[in-house]
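Hi there, hope your week has been kind to you so far. For a while now I've been wondering how a particular protein folds. I'm sending you its amino acid sequence along with the backbone structure tokens. Could you read through the record and tell me how the tokens relate to the sequence? Take your time with it, there's no hurry, and the full record follows here.
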Amino acid sequence: MKNIKIGIPRALLYYYYFPFWLKLFSELKLKVVISDKTSRDLLDRGVKKSLSEICVPIKVMIGHVLNLDKKEVDYIFLPRFRTIREDVVLCPKFLGLPDMIRHSLPSLKAEVIADIIEAESDDISQFSNHKKLAEELKIPKKEMETALKKAAEFWQRYRNLLYKGYLVDDFLGVEKIEVLEKLISKFENSSKLPQSQKEELNSSTTEEVVDIALIGYVYDVYDQYINMDITNKLKEMGVRVHTFSMVREDIIEKELAELRKPMFWEFTNKLYGAAEHYFKNQKIDGVIHLTAFGCGPDSMLGQILEIDAKDYDKAFMTLRIDEQTGESHIITRIEAFIDLLRLKKEQ
């Protein structure tokens, strides 16, 4: 089993669960291969094998699967996420993703492991969610359950740091579990404030610092290629960046309780709860909704957020990205938005 190579695509919910998965496979003594960072070539390969009407994050995922196949992995780990909350589902493309991959890439050499994820919360460490993985790799149930428990505990430590104000970006450059463990321990024991809590920033501008909530799915906000590295661009312009990953689940639940009816999609609900929290936070100067062109759930969420932003008198902007989005377009929009926020603070 030590010689088996498990490929993890650096796409979609990798940006949410990567510490969990890295720890899990480390405990199982399996070699993990992560696909390369998104690039123009990787995206183009995904686009060529995709239906034109699907959103860019799915096209990116197909590109990452092709990238892993070139690395000659034995398996590609591609869980079929159905739900992580009772009576609420995820985007339908998540549920059908393994089938879409198999039909789009019939020449794929690696075998796809696609356990169905059905959980009552973000904690997906139940054995039932990894039964196929255990069966395929002949891992005893007790060994798998032990590894899952350690992975869940490690993931929770990581999430606690996000709640303190760290960005997912602060951890994304790490692909080795040993390095990630050291980094998490370092941040846990550090007296230094994370970027979102600092009074002064190391930026290229001397103008007043502004606070912006960047609301979007993790694969839109943290894939630096498809979003033109928006987080670092905002930092360079003197912005303290806040994301939905920093908002605790109990706060999101409280905001969702005010909805007459939750939306059908779990991460859409999370974004709504986080955005409402930031709308009410006087420290936040403005909100940017980052969305992929053609995203069905976001078409509903965007309309709700736009209305609520007016009700709270909070500056709000929508940025749509796809495979054709240019960097100059992104920079122009965010520069104008930040100028607006600074003018409002001066009044």
User: Anything to note?
Assistant: The mean pLDDT is 92. The beta strands are 5-8, 31-34, 75-77, 80-83, 111-113, 116-118, 210-215, 239-243, 286-292, 315-321. The longest strand covers residues 286-292.
